[in-house]
What does this fold into?
Amino acid sequence: MDARTFLRELRTEVEHHPGVGHSLLGRMSIDPRARADFRIFSGQHYPLVGTFTRYLELLLLNAPASDEKVWLAKVLVDEYGERSEGADHAAHYRIFMRACGWDDAGMEAIRLHPAVPQFLEEHLRMCSQDEFLLGLGAVGPGHEWAIPAMFHEVLKGLRAAGFGEHEIGYFTLHVEQDKDHGAWLEEALQRLAEGERNQALIRAGCLRSLAARERLWWGIADKINAGRMSARFPGLASATSDEGEATLAEVRRRLTVRVSLGA
Ligand SMILES: [Fe+2]
Ligand SMILES: [Fe+2]
It folds into this structure.
């Protein structure tokens, strides 16, 4: 299959993947989410936002030649805050976190659904230990093509829950910016997606990323339901206990060791 056909088919596959069209996102209009639900959503999603640049940095080290590095470097410049008034994307996301009621200490102490650290580990592994094209498939088509579609749905829910535009800038920025990142990527992939082996690697990375994404949305939906349950029936809190789940601070410590050992 030529690169153009492969990429067109992969785009369609991404658009129809359950990790992108997950019911948690697709039902935002018929099953409205309250601010309290988004507080939980934001806390579980935050670790992903802060780790994305690390995937790209690791992948940059793995890139076989400068040609392949150009796309990654261009995206990284945006991620470091070039087009978001100097605030890197994690800092930009914290505006939303604060609007959801988190303070800095609270963010570090959030107990994370196991699907969250699993998502991070899977991506760190793909970008540092697997073949370059597999990692590129994960952060490229698996992220840049998926995010505008997913965030489009999230934004419907955020606006319905009463968030102001100044509070949800991270999401509106990404709907636009990731269209650019996806287009730059497509240029790079036109050259890289030649041959059966390369195409299989790119697609495998993309699908592994989207599968982890689907598990993540299920995990967040589970957390939201648990939050609703314990708000409604405080006495039944034990049924939805998060005891034993790692906090962001703990996960970060664990990941730092892993990455430096794995490198
Ligand atoms: Fe970003
Ligand atoms: Fe992006």
Q: What stands out?
A: The chain has one domain: 3-262. The domain at 3-262 is CATH 1.20.910.10 (Heme Oxygenase; Chain A). The radius of gyration is 18 Å. The pocket of fe (ii) ion (ligand 2) is lined by residues 75, 144, 177-178, 181 (CB under 6 Å).
